Amino acid sequence: MKKTKLFAAIMCSSLLILSIVFVAADHIDAPAVAGTTTDIADLYAFEGDNPNNTVFIATLQGPLTPGVVTENAAFDEDVLVEFNIDNTGDLIEDLVIQAIKRGDSMYFFGPAQPAQTGLSSEVAVFSERTAVKISDSTDVQIVTNNGMSFFAGPRRDAFYFDFNRFNEVISGTAAPDGFLPPGTAEDFFEALNVLAIAVEIPNSMLGTAPQHIANGIGGVANLAPSYNVWVSAKRKQ
Amino acid sequence: MKIYKIKLVFIAICASVLFAQCDDDENGNVIMQETCDDGILNGDEEGIDCGGSNCEPCVGALDFSGTYVQEDIMGRPGINTVFSGTDDVKNMFNTSLVTDRAAFQPTFEATLEAYHDVYGDALGTPIDYETNILGFDAVTFTTVLAEFDALQVSPNGPTSYYDPNISGAVLTGRTLSDDVIDISLTLMFGGMSGTRFDGNNDTPQLTSDGVDSGDRDFSLPFPYLEPPIQE
Predict the structure, then answer these.
(1) Number of helices and strands (H, E) in chain B?
(2) Among B176, B183, B171, which residue's Cα sits nearest to residue A44?
(3) Measured between alpha carbons, how far is B70 from B198 in angstroms, rounded to an integer?
(4) How far is B27 from chain A (nearest CA, A)?
(5) Would you put residue B137 in left (φ > 0), alpha (ψ -120 to 50) or beta?
(6) Domain count across chain A
(7) Which of A38, A193, B106, B136 could form a disulfide with A233 if both were Cys (CB 3.0 to 4.6 A apart)?
(8) Does B128 touch chain A (CB under 8 A)?
(9) Would residue A179 count as lying in a domain?
(10) Chain A residues within an 8 Å CB radius of B115
(11) Does A220 reside within a domain?
(12) What ipTM does the predicted assembly reach?
């Protein structure tokens, strides 16, 4: 990334916090969490390289510019990140995989049936616990335990989007043309980083997937049975 | 006689204590290299196989107590940022349960229509949302987005946010490479054909943002993400 472009990106990042323009996917999505350690950037959930596994990745605190900002970014010991898995189809979490920092490590708990569902959580200390040292740019630490793999640390943002143009599109300043053609459009996130938490887990530990929640709605039918998955970030009171 | 018995008991107790200690110490075998799973306190460990410079901190030393309260939440990409409209609504969405989102639907629908109005105004003709490629009308579409905001993840088969060209891979999760923006724009502005406002035939380009994943490498092993970009 050229320095001028990087400077523009930094300026845009700063302006965003003060303005009402949109950032997707969930990066700096609302004023109460923007710029805080609970700010979720993205959630990914997909079949692993081993097709018997599912991968859950949450990214946080994005976008981080390369260099000092990325190096200084840190997980917060007061923030509990939870992958929530509904395996009955009622959109209430039946299992959680939790991640919370202590010292130089990320501690993972679960998958576990949470003691309580909803807006408040406690750490599932009764469940399987795995610690992995938090990685940095060059020292990548991965721990495997009981068929599961764990990682936490800074990574390149996988999300791509011409978000500056998007803001012009929805505000009307890009009307009537809309988005720019390939080659002219610019991926705002091309050279930015995030803090990532990744878990790969055998499907056998997640229970049987319920009927796809969108089956029978509109013109949708015959979708594969699917868990409902979301990520939450919760702060210690 | 009594004294002899007492002596015997004393010796037995000493022996048992000694043996117990020996058990802890692998029966006196010389340990060449301490590890974090050898079952004994050695090296600079603070407890048996914990603490010190090499092992995981001891359980007693870590405090996981307390109650943690939700400040942010995410299922599908961009839902809150694109559809909530105002700062207050965005904050409310982030502190709400997935099962408690019915009240957001009218706002989502109004926002969706407002985006169409921007182009209706620019082109001088009324433009409304049209039923999309999933067969969702405006109410159904915004109800699904508001009330079912989770990724549907299929454990059996390939993952795609939305790819009708891969059998069994429609709405089955989100990979790192999925172009969730173009998919979302197509669902919002593409109509039943998916090409309603695709920049052709003098229409605005609203179904693709024109960028792809560029030089990102999505073929890496766990944790699948690339190292951070360096300065």
Answers:
(1) 6, 2
(2) B176
(3) 39
(4) 30
(5) beta
(6) 1
(7) A38
(8) no
(9) yes
(10) 170
(11) no
(12) 0.90
